[in-house]
DNA sequence: ACCTGAACACCGTTCAAGT
DNA sequence: ACCTGAACACCGTTCAAGT
């Protein structure tokens, strides 16, 4: 693993400034925020943005990778405090809430669980899938989750729940309701 | 209800040509297909497109309103052939499949079940909600669907299932699986 | 009454010229 | 080695001029 040469001081400054501004812009305007505008607000030429982040996806991921890591870390906090099934539900609720509040995050989470998505596995995808696997397997061992669903499927369905909640009121007020409908099923007789 | 004066012959030709081309373009490129390109391919000036369809949403809805009506009509066909619960599931599966195959349709269906969405209730929204209500209420009377879910919620959750299926493989191969996970729940012990 | 297409503003992307 | 910003292509939207 060869060390990456440290960036030149001005390059590093630009890089970090771009990330800050991009995180704001994506949160406010969604995944399609203007790249030109981001470059301008960061005080750099548009070419500099493309040098550091060749695609919109690369910038989106770089801007939110720390938030994704924080989300993945919360999985273990819930696991330490609650029984496995409840921990999974609480965590999925938090993931949905984040996906709705921070507008660009939903698209990033979506691409993280897309099969055959772009360039192999992204860092964000790996973090989320690892966290989901720990909670899912624990819940399955406990017997509170069906044995025939995969962690990535649970993440995809949670993404669907976030979409449905967004349609309901533009915010996240229905997340818990829709998540529990998913857990217990639409047919009568499920667990309350 | 005052009769709308019939359009001038050339206006009507343009209008219909625009609808044809738009349906193709949205199906191929999704909801963000270039309006300029649609006008060009229809052989009209861009101003003509805006005259007939002041917003992208208006064009999208006009281009697909017949497909939406056909979808709504299928609800009654399923209801005539199957018990209520099965009819609902089959219909939702067909809706999801359509939403994935015809790219612009998913966005339209989404906005049709969005609360507080744009201009009051759209024609598409009304058709879909009416059809859903008939199936949902029948299934609830039969006892195969929880009594505490509303038709529009079922449509939103189906939209979420379509999203999740799209993430899974870009096509619709997981629709039936995800739909039945939604019906029966992720906890063990649901109906097979 | 309706259509056209130029005009304007905006955005993504590349690349020659700079330091 | 890195940055800048002009240049190009493209798109959405409006509106004066046409028929």
From TrEMBL, chains A, B:
Name a Pfam family for this protein. TetR_N
Top-rank taxon? Bacteria
**The entry's keywords:** DNA-binding, Transcription, Transcription regulation
For this protein, the DNA-binding region equals: 34-53
Q: Where does the HTH tetR-type domain lie? A: 12-71
InterPro entries named among the record's database cross-references: Homeodomain-like_sf, HTH-type_TetR-like_transc_reg, HTH_TetR, Tet_transcr_reg_TetR-rel_C_sf, TetR_SbtR-like_C
The protein's matches in Gene3D superfamilies, at most eight in alphabetical order, are given as:
Tetracycline Repressor, domain 2
Tagged with keyword DNA-binding: yes
**What is the protein name for this chain?**
Transcriptional regulator
């Amino acid at each position: 693993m060869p060390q990456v040469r440290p960036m030149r001081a001005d390059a590093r400054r630009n890089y970090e400034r771009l990330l800050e501004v991009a995180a704001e812009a994506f949160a406010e305007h969604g995944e399609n925020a203007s790249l030109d505008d981001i470059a301008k607000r960061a005080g750099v030429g548009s070419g500099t943005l493309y040098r550091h982040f060749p695609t919109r996806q690369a910038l989106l991921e770089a801007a939110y990778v720390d938030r994704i890591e924080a989300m993945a870390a919360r999985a273990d906090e819930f696991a330490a405090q609650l029984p496995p099934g409840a921990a999974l539900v609480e965590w999925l609720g938090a993931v949905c809430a984040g996906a709705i509040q921070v507008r660009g995050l939903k698209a990033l989470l979506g691409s993280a669980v897309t099969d055959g998505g772009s360039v192999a596995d992204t860092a964000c995808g790996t973090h989320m899938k690892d966290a989901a696997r720990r909670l899912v397997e624990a819940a399955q061992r406990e017997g509170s989750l069906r044995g025939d669903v995969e962690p990535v499927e649970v993440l995809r369905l949670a993404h669907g729940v976030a979409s449905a909640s967004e349609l309901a009121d533009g915010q996240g007020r229905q997340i818990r309701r829709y998540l529990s409908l998913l857990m217990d099923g639409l047919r009568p007789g499920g667990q309350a």
